[in-house]
TrEMBL record:
Keywords: Coiled coil, Magnesium, Metal-binding, Phosphotransferase system, Sugar transport, Transferase, Transport. The keyword RNA-binding does not apply. This is PTS system, cellobiose-specific IIA component. PANTHER family: PTS SYSTEM N,N'-DIACETYLCHITOBIOSE-SPECIFIC EIIA COMPONENT. The lineage of its organism: Bacteria, Bacillati, Bacillota, Clostridia, Eubacteriales. GO terms for biological process: phosphoenolpyruvate-dependent sugar phosphotransferase system. It comes from the Bacteria. Residues 25-59 form a coiled coil. Its cofactor is Mg(2+). Pfam families: PTS_IIA (PF02255). Transmembrane segments: none annotated. GO terms for molecular function: metal ion binding; transferase activity.
Length: 102
């Protein structure tokens, strides 16, 4: 069970990063509607991954013995990186919009 949840975090975190970078590409091409839609998809993926992470944290708080593994560390790293990159890409998309207005 734990392994499936770990892979869920990795998978959805990776999908979120992919959508975020697609969003940046769309913004650089001037397609801001598509960029915004892709950022929304990225957030949906992050929400799924974060909810899974929260379930694991709650299970540990409730006394369940969750073995820490390299795979678990990788999942956490993937999620945190995806969150940070999406945040930066949102700012970059905003900058593209501002440059387009000028």
């Amino acid at each position: 069970m734990l392994e499936a949840e770990i892979f869920e975090i990795i998978s959805h975190g990776g999908d979120a990063r992919g959508y975020a970078y697609e969003s940046l590409k769309a913004a650089r091409e001037g397609d801001f509607e598509k960029a915004d839609e892709l950022l929304e998809k990225a957030q949906e993926e992050l929400d799924i991954a974060h909810n899974t992470q929260t379930k694991l944290i709650q299970a540990e708080i409730n006394g369940e013995d969750l073995k820490m593994s390299l795979l678990m560390v990788h999942a956490q790293d993937q999620l945190m990186t995806a969150i940070a990159e999406k945040s930066l890409i949102e700012q970059m998309v905003g900058m593209c919009k501002e440059f387009k207005r000028e």
